[in-house]
Design goal:
With 454 residues, the chain is of the alpha/beta class. The protein has helices spanning 2-20, 46-62, 76-84, 102-106, 115-119, 126-129, 133-138, 162-168, 178-190, 205-214, 220-224, 239-256, 267-277, 290-297, 335-348, 351-361, 368-372, 374-383, 388-395, 409-425, 431-452; strands at residues 36-42, 66-72, 94-98, 111-112, 149-161, 196-200, 280-286, 303-307, 322-330. Strands 1, 2, 3, 4, 5, 6, 7, 8 and 9 form a nine-stranded mixed beta sheet that branches. β1 (36-42), α2 and β2 form a beta-alpha-beta unit.
């Protein structure tokens, strides 16, 4: 009964937020002769905003019809809350959003999917056509319509000390499952090569990322691509439960045997410095950390990167879990601003601009044109040759690692993060009990969402 009342209260709150974000009169048009203002809300930090501002400066100088600016709106959660409760006429032209939230954006009132602009674009968008298939699909809804486009595509993987691996006789390509990862850490630490085998970026993304590499669907309706998700399958008593258990068991053993830096440690302030010093051999993170990693290592050893492992030794490992940040058009009622937003997104995807942001940050080049550009080829050959392994994997990838298409992705990530935190903090924690808590939390969020949208 208490759970039912809690659901009703939460439903009422959700409906009140919808009301707060209700449509009103669109923003007034600019005076004749004035450029159309394109405001972009983002949660990128100062450094990346600086790179993006350089791109916007070039865009503004390249034409006179639009003038684009970028504004920081706090953390990702803070910005999502703000954009969902802002009156239509006060919405910006564009906003940044995590790729795992595509389902949430596609079903919202504040986002206008790119597909309608693509369909009416007589000039075409060659960069979109040459965007890596798995990257492009990550920004589509479950009907294949384009919702957004990557600003910075972040690829989940494991950075490693290549020199240390060679000394320890470890072939990085052999680390394909969580079992392999545990074995490598044991070899490195017990062999005296380092204090810790690995440090983890503490984010719920990697829970789904490893399951994606497995090729596992942890929700019904084909992970949301064959209909609306109604059930979390973590505790299905079969394949899903056993697979997740194996993944979490390896996490727990790493900490039980002191093979990993404390889970929850800050990746910038604690894990990367230990990687650079040789105290730690690996970091499970995303490619957007590349610049920070290389700067910290400063040439002391060669840095490699491999794709995320699968949850078990039987994983498919043919899918590439999507990560990173995309750019989306706001449904602010101003057609001129929305068209301008589309034009800006196209400009940012061009070879020189996309390559510029990728080489500055470590994000992947999202399309073939950016990849083939002189700037990116120089970066790949001279700054981070190991990134070629990622593109090789991408070129052979399929769609088996699509993120669950679910509008409650924030709740899902938090539940997954808490699950890992619980079993790594206590070597005797009951893994099935932690999985049940995560499953119940996610199921409640699914039920609430479906009630509010039935």
């Amino acid at each position: 009964m208490k759970k039912f009342l809690a659901l009703l209260l939460a439903l009422a709150m959700a409906l009140s937020l919808v009301a707060c974000g209700a449509k009103d009169e669109p923003a007034p048009s600019p005076e004749p002769g004035e450029p159309i203002e394109l405001v972009w809300w983002t949660y990128f930090g100062d450094t990346n905003i600086g790179y993006l501002q350089n791109i916007l400066d070039r865009y503004n100088a390249s034409q006179t019809k639009y003038h684009a600016t970028i504004e920081y709106q706090g953390s990702q959660a803070e910005m999502n809350a703000k954009i969902g409760s802002t009156a239509q006429s006060e919405l910006p032209a564009l906003f940044s959003g995590a790729v795992e939230n595509v389902a949430m954006y596609a079903s919202s009132d504040y986002c206008t999917p790119l597909q309608s602009f693509i369909d009416s674009d007589a000039e075409g968008w060659p960069e979109l056509e040459q965007t890596w298939g798995s990257i492009r699909a990550a920004y589509q809804d479950n009907d294949g319509n384009q919702v957004g486009y990557p600003t910075g595509y972040s690829y989940g993987g494991i950075f490693y000390n290549a020199d240390m691996f060679e000394q320890a006789g470890i072939n990085a390509a052999d680390i394909q499952s969580m079992d392999d990862l545990y074995t490598a850490c044991e070899t490195l630490v017990k062999g005296g090569f380092c204090t810790y085998g690995i440090g983890f970026h503490p984010d719920g993304f990697y829970f789904n990322g490893v399951l994606g590499r497995e090729g596992l669907q942890a929700y019904d309706a084909g992970n949301g691509y064959e209909g609306s998700i109604t059930k979390c399958l973590y505790m299905d008593g079969g394949t899903v439960q056993n697979t997740i258990y194996n993944m979490l068991d390896n996490y727990q053993k790493l900490y039980k045997n002191n093979l990993a830096i404390a889970w929850g440690s800050d990746y910038q302030g604690e894990i990367i410095p230990q990687l650079a010093s040789g105290d730690c051999a690996m970091l499970m993170g995303v490619v957007s950390m590349t610049t920070k990693v290389l700067s910290s290592v400063n040439g002391a050893f060669d840095v490699g990167i491999i794709p995320l492992p699968s949850a078990t030794e039987n994983g498919k490992r043919t899918g590439e879990p999507a990560g990173g940040t995309g750019i989306y058009i706001c449904n602010n009622g101003n057609e001129a601003q929305q068209q301008g937003a589309y034009e800006l997104i196209k400009y940012m995807s061009t070879a020189d601009e996309a390559a510029y942001f990728s080489t500055c940050t470590g994000y992947l080049a999202p399309n073939q044109q950016a990849y083939d550009s002189e700037a990116y080829q120089k970066y790949m050959n001279e700054t981070f040759p190991a990134i070629k392994a990622v593109y090789e994997s991408l070129s052979n990838s399929d769609d088996s690692a699509n993120n669950p298409y679910i509008p409650i992705s924030n709740e899902m990530k938090e539940a997954n993060k808490l699950c890992i935190q619980t079993i790594t903090a206590d070597p005797n924690a009951d893994i099935n009990a932690a999985m049940q808590v995560a499953c119940d939390s996610i199921q409640e969020a699914i039920d609430l969402y479906n009630m509010a949208n039935s």
